[in-house]
Amino acid sequence: MLNQDQLFEKAKSSSLYRKILNSVLYKMVPFNKPHRFQIDKIDDDSITVKLPYIKRNFNHIKGVHACALATVSEFSSGALLLRKLGRKYRIILQKLEMEYHYQGKSDCYATFSVDDNWLKENVFSPLESEEKIVVPCIVKTFDSDENLISTATIKWQIKSWDKVKTKA
């Protein structure tokens, strides 16, 4: 059985393993299953998640619903942070801010990127002296025609599991 790191690693280059990873994520986060989010692309420092243009993701004028855009933004940043941070840290959503630029009328793609330098500067170094930190993560979502649909700022609280008082 593959562990989380192995599954993410294989999903970088294999559509079969991306499909398996998406199935696992549907089970881990059942709230997202009806939206049919799919990890479209993943590499060492970024992830792109597809928000399909399907009826359950529509608003009242058959555009992509604002809440679906917010949820795919949270999902993409959370998935990459979990992959990069591993099991040592707990992440929990503190705040989510959305700015909507254009009405989505096709599949949308939310992309989040962080590199090791960003993690060192914004997560690991601050956690050496703080019990918990809050990091802002910027997620941009584009439609199939490359129109900028939304920009999300997701603030994640990060804390070492050994400092958490209420266990999962």
From TrEMBL:
Protein name: YiiD C-terminal domain-containing protein
Taxonomic superkingdom: Bacteria
SUPFAM superfamilies membership: Thioesterase/thiol ester dehydrase-isomerase
